[in-house]
Queue: 2 jobs
Job 1
Amino acid sequence: MNCDEIRERLPALIDRELEPGELAEVEKHLAECPECRSEKSRQEKFTTSVKISLEGLRPSDRFIKRVIEKLPEGASPEAREAEAAAARKKGLVSLAVAVVVIVLALLAMLLAARYKAKQEKGGAPPAPEPAPAAAPASPAAPAAPAAPTAPAAPAAPANNP
Ligand SMILES: [Zn+2]
């Protein structure tokens, strides 16, 4: 197996869902390939954090019971239990997908907001404002009467010691 094939199997490896034969091959490759090893630990970390954030979101017992009740009558208790476990897992997976989608959406919004702020700050030059300089003096404003010259401040009385 090459690195790509190994990496395709990392999620299954982390979930311990690999066939024994594949598992041996993947582990052998990981022992020899530092790149795939670090990819594996990256995925492991991510998977663990998603699982932790989902700890409180397990489907309720009532939901599980409803699923069991919907199973065919003839199903053995073991089969029913297996179905229930599958339903539980499915619920977790769709929750995980939902969480990932929400996180990505938030990230996209954050990036968009940042990008916009950056553009507004230093990007395009400000729009030219109509220059009123060339316009004739507005007739509305009467020429202000010359401000009376302030009377010269009386000389401070000499207060020489
Ligand atoms: Zn590799």
Note: The longest helix spans residues 77-123.
Job 2
Amino acid sequence: MAECGFAVSFGGMESVQEFIAQLPKVELHVHLVGSASMETVLGLARRHPDGGVPLTAEGLAAFYEFRDFPHFIDVYDAVSRLVTEPEDVADLVRGVGRDLAPQNVRYVEMQVSPYAFRRAGLSPALITAALDAGARDALAEHGVRIAYIFDFPGQSADRHATQTLEHALEEPPEALIGFGIGGIEAARAPYRDVIRDVFAAAAAAGLRCVPHGRPAAGRVPARAAAAGRRVADLERAHPVRAVAGGAPAAGDARSRAVRDGEQ
Ligand SMILES: [Zn+2]
């Protein structure tokens, strides 16, 4: 074997790009709804044509031109509201598998916000069954193993934090590995106590804590920053849990907690 990196053979492949394209990969941060491709969202919109989401590719592209983060949340919410049947949930998961397989992604950690589906009338049991079915199909049809992280919007933690925790602990999908928080970071501060409590309970139950947009001192109120530090402390204290089936347990949650800033 060559000792110098520049002498490494790419196995007959013509370029570094081709070599990288063919490497097996993990995707550590996608959202069940937010990462849905045009094809997937069009499928949902056409299944629910009265949902207020454009039914053409052109219309959908314009719909997804975000003005700011609150507008992003509005769009995210509109697409989430299309998800009213278990098959919609399963299709979102299958779509991520289908879309990532060509990049040779073998393992995905996916953020799921069950409150949105509860709002549509789906029970925790139905949501879990749909997530399990989607994960089974993504693996069987596309070779992509899915792991789930449940989260809730910080701005409505008073209504959704405990509900999401109970779902995670009492009726989890088989592949649930973590617990998180998304939504509008600046609006979390009033709910810091319940947020702290649900993360403590999730960690005690063996879930990895994967919060979005951890507050940082200097740009948010000090009390919110303190809440963020407590969550960070929980992450440090919490051991990484292996994923059932031997998929890569994807490293340290701290390194990916704020990958995309907010959701
Ligand atoms: Zn995210």
Note: The mean pLDDT is 82.
